[in-house]
Each structure stands twice: as C-alpha cells, then as structure tokens.
Write a structure and sequence with these properties.
Length: about 190
C-alpha cells in the first residue's frame, strides 16, 4: 500500500508555475523547484513523473488561473460591446505594473514558444491552441464592438489585435514601454 500524499498539489503546482514563468522550462532547475515547492526531487518525480510533468501541470494552471479569467468577458453570451477594450485596458495595466510577475515575465506560453522545449510536439500544440483561444476570444470582442462592420474587416482587426497582444508579451521583459505601446496601439484601433 502506497503512502498518502502529504502535500497540497495545487499549492505545489502554483509554486512551480512561478519558477517556470520567471525562468523558463530549461532554466528552471530541479533545486529551484524543490525550494519553491517545498518538495524534494523524489517527491516531485513521484507526484508528477518528471520535471516535464510538473511543467505540464503548471501550464494548465496558468491557462486556468491567469489566461482564461482575463478572457472570460470575451466569451460571455452576449459579449458586451466594451469587453475587448476592457481586456486591453486591463492587460495594459497589468504589464505596466513592474515588480509583478506578468509585467516582469510576460506570458509563460509566448516565452515557451521561443525556447528549446517548443520543439516538442505537445508543447507546440499547447502554444498554438493558446493562440487560437486568444484569437477566438478577441474575435468575439471585436464582433461585439463593431457589429456593423464587414466580417472581413472585423476578422483583420481581431488578427491584428491578437498579434499586438503576442508582441506585447514578447517585448515586456526587455522593453516594457514598447510592450505597453503595442497595447495602446490596439486601444486606438478599437476606438476608431
């Protein structure tokens, strides 16, 4: 009979998420994960199978706790006409708050897309699915904001807004002002 688990899995995954988000998968050392989670290597491997298993759990928590709550108003039925503007305003504010993880580290999945682990097919699929989810949500927001505009025009605007979000996430670690500027550009487009 196996020993009962003596730790809170959600707390462990959230602690590991911070390490992966700040450092990236490759640079997140097992000792750093041990320190953050309070678990030793064997407990991490027993509970998650590997460092990669812990990373996969952290990515799911990131999507559920960070990404999807921000997108929720864009997925409502119906979507409020101002929901997409509120999304960009909230994201802009979050990226402008230096000292907080989102401002200092950007997006876990955008960062992952440029890392060696992105060569893994499952990781590639997760990043692509995230981008598609973001694009679909922003598309709903653009449709609600500009219902009278031509479908092709709304589609182009949603694609551009998605690209500006990804750009902001990619830039925030190295050029926070440009990251915020990308979101400001989206807000200008959404006010037109």
């Amino acid at each position: 009979m196996g020993r009962a688990q003596a730790f809170d899995t959600d707390r462990v995954v959230r602690a590991a998420l911070g390490v992966f988000w700040r450092s990236g998968y490759e640079a997140a050392s097992v000792p750093a994960l041990e320190e953050a989670t309070g678990l030793n290597r064997s407990s991490i491997y027993h509970a998650f199978g590997s460092k990669r298993g812990l990373f996969d759990a952290a990515v799911q928590t990131y999507l559920d706790d960070v990404v999807r709550p921000r997108l929720r108003p864009l997925l409502a039925d119906p979507v409020a006409p101002d929901a997409v503007v509120e999304y960009f305003t909230g994201l802009r504010d979050a990226l402008a708050r230096t000292g907080e993880i989102q401002a200092d580290s950007g997006c876990l999945l955008v960062n992952t897309s440029g890392a060696p682990i992105a060569r893994d097919e499952a990781v590639r699929r997760t990043v692509a699915d995230y981008r598609a989810e973001l694009r679909a949500a922003l598309g709903r927001g653009v449709d609600a904001r500009f219902p009278a505009r031509d479908h092709a025009e709304r589609d182009r605007l949603a694609e551009l807004c998605t690209s500006l979000v990804v750009s902001a996430f990619a830039l925030v670690r190295v050029d926070p002002d440009s990251a915020v500027g990308s979101l400001d550009s989206a807000l200008v487009l959404l006010e037109a």
